[in-house]
């Protein structure tokens, strides 16, 4: 994907935010701009807005401060590269106050935020973002409730987009230290980039980088822009309080639109509260988890300071044992690193949690879809069932590509939920609000594009648009197909007759239902999950080795729902993660037995879960199991129904859903008003 493609995406996003129906801009008065470099202690929304207008006017050659919602200003924003990730992209939302009793349905239960550093979610919980004018039932969360600003000491924040003036109103900036991980345009400043066909070339603005602008705010602000890859798309947050660390994995950017303040868009937020360890505890007694190991690996690749990574050891991570941190590291990854990230990392996480499966059904929702092929979707499906792993020999050099064993047609095994044009047009913001939902008509009309996987996205909350990126996976348990290390086939051949060295086959474990959820930032594209290949570059030190190449930085969390040994895994984690996987005491009708909750199933859902009658029945016996042993365990196991997910999250889309048929998908360049006016340019790819 080219740099111009990235500009197209950011243009559409900014236009959507600025011009969506129902969105208003505030007028600004003619007042002198304050010093932008006074530090966070002096920051307030009005000051940053005045400074924003001064910078915009200086860049446009206009010395007078004018209202930024004038028609001329709006037109200028629609035809020039938008400052989508800088402090200048502010104050587009006027209704920053929450819904009142007269303007929105009342909440069904009180939700505290901002004043407590208690372990509110010691077991981990998946939320939907709050949305203006939508009723609340305790499974939605506002950004203020995530931050708990009154006790927040340090915040590590990651986002593809920032609205800094809005964001800083959510913090006590005088007592909080900040680390920002940002997306920075890689185009050298001041260079000329080509405009649309027949249009005059544009000169890029000479301005400080976002990193420089952020760090100019004061000594308590640090910023980092990863150098690898095209797009810093991760939304990870680490929030340090006096008694806990809150780990947050959202799909939302740090802009008001994504956090529901317009009542148009919804996202997901997974978070967990981890207690601070006793300061007198011996450092040698610290116990890491697979979750923490992968988190440190990811942050290390982003070149965050060692102090940030070692600081994580001050907290107790045992409650993360049931989960997996799944990431995409931008750039090329080889050998053991390859097995940890992107598609191969997803597969490794599934295997590590014992959730490998067959007969696997995958339902995915995404806000951006790339130029897919059936082969790419097959690879994603294989990874989701833990069957896309890397074989690493003793030499450490992997020379064979991952290859899933189940290569059946995907027409009924993989479904992708995406909105139609009619759905976006009928949303509260209309077609002007669809700029962050990205798909190209060019892709859809390609002969090799797997259009048969598409299903209509319809939100479980009245007509909200979705920025969620999720996988809902169901299957029948299966042992991992191959170990991550192997001996040569020649060695196997010469030793095949040595009976004494052959280990007897152990009886296969009884088959069980498997289900899990992925929630994070990764869309349905090669940019997000990576592409595996053999390095053929003559000058490469890894010539002949397998590699994965990823354009984006992404992260998410894998949440087990059903699977072998799941109860035991949860029971070993402190705070009973498996006993309250979903709801923190939300009523008698949601209380379940410990066994049901250990599997992630409430009593309400458990009554609905019935085996799906399917032609592909899987019996628990295996070809390698002796007949007597198999006879004692024979039991037909069928896929769990969709209702198994409802205790974790209801939606965000209705299931089942219809095929598109003759309905047209939402195409941002054909349907968004900004592109209809000629503000866009042709691209070869547009996904985040």
From TrEMBL:
Name used for this protein in its record: Tyrosyl-DNA phosphodiesterase 1
UniProt GO cellular component terms: nucleus
Compositionally biased intervals (Acidic residues): 614-625
Residues that bind substrate: 235
Region spans: Disordered: 18-122, 584-628
GO molecular function: 3'-tyrosyl-DNA phosphodiesterase activity; double-stranded DNA binding; single-stranded DNA binding
Source organism per UniProt: Elsinoe batatas
An example Gene Ontology biological process: DNA repair
Low complexity bias: start-end ranges: 99-109
Bias type Polar residues, positions: 57-69
Top-level taxon of the source organism: Eukaryota
Sites annotated Interaction with DNA: 525
Transmembrane stretches, start-end: none
Catalytic residues, chain numbering: 233 (nucleophile)
